[in-house]
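We emphasize that the prediction below concerns an isolated chain of 471 residues; any contacts that depend on oligomerization or on bound cofactors are therefore not represented. The input was used exactly as deposited, without trimming of termini.
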Amino acid sequence: MELKRLEALELRKLEADAEKAKSQLGESRYRQSARPHQLPPEGDWRIWLVISGRGWGKTFTGAGWLVEQALQQPNTEWAVVAPTFTDVRRTCVEGPSGIIKSLLPGQLSFYNRSNGMITLSNGSKIHMISAEIPDRARGLNLSGAWLDEFAAWQYEDTWTAGLAPALRIGNPQVVITTTPRPTKLIKEFIGRTDGSIVITRGSTFDNAANLSEAALAELRNRYEGTRIGRQELFGEVLFDVPGALWSLEMIESARIKQAPDFVRVVVAIDPATTSGENADETGIVVVAKGIDGRAYVLADRSCRDTPSGWAHRAIAAYHEFNADRVVAEKNQGGDMVELTIRSVEPTIPFKGIVAKVGKRLRAEPIAALYEQGRVSHIGVFDLLEDQMTGWVPDSGYSPDRLDALVHGLAELGLATGASADRFFAQLAPSCTACGIPNDADAFNCKGCGLALREATAQLYTSGINPSHRGQ
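Result of the prediction step, given as a token string:
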């Protein structure tokens, strides 16, 4: 009898806590500040998929919803998941729009930063989980979850094998907040028609009242008018462009965060022929060849600047990544491109490329390497990837970042035993002095041409343009 009495008292306490949480809904930061589309939709849905541009308020929405649900259901377990544990802690939990800020005084019982556990005053627990560990949710009995930046998760199994089976208590619901990318799971969720998924879309500018003018101006300057801007600003899921040599899947499937040691690093430049506010950008892309024989894209430092400005930027990248050469197209500027580079650093190993074939013929072998899975991007280079997936050969459009990428990967001479090999060899034969692949002569080699470069630099410094090199 005593046990039953205690159980009844505990039940009444839980019911009282739940009623108190419901009565406080209107007092929460979430309910007081949310726009209508940031509030949970009506109906019996399983997944609320929030796809929006940067700055829309995805973190605010996910954190507010999760806190509400956990407080209204005492002694339940929930999860917050982001691409990395650092993302979970810094953005989803401790950030200015995160879970801690969403709680009213007295609602937080204990926050353990080390083991990733938040305990609320009603006994509910929120587990902090990194999407980098697919089986981290195994064994949990979850009543729901908030999944942040879902399209940036490295492993599909984090959802399919880890979280989905753990969502098994009551009528579990999940909120997914993400900047759109057409991953396999995102496309699957968008395509569902069974009513289990409700989709909310939003634009960066929906939240303009809460964003600084400087932030909005920067976002417009970077993305407005570009294909990628439709994704990053307006929350549109971009699909492949018919006729483009690159697809999003090609890039996404090989994307990594770390690479092996490198045997070569190249800074490639596609110089603009004019400068000024309306001039073309100068493409500056850093690529490398790994000890595994594959290629890696390390950085995109493209810019719209004066010749001196882009030269300094390219040389800074050369030193930052410990590159062995700078290569640049000189069809337009001729020797002026090399003179510009050497006016900043006279001894830098430089190679001028004369593009003897059209853009399609230059780009096709490089696209083939991506199709074979032999090129990985270390991180995300949104504007470069926008050009890659949006450029259709023979369209008349000249993509500067993409051209620099093609120059750099061609210089690495990645392919072996294929038609691409012959293409690379025609562009840049091996050094006749030391045999380093894809070098024109000893002057351009980092090793055997060093003394000659230093001597020749004296001539550049004095204003003389030497016509005889590396014999």
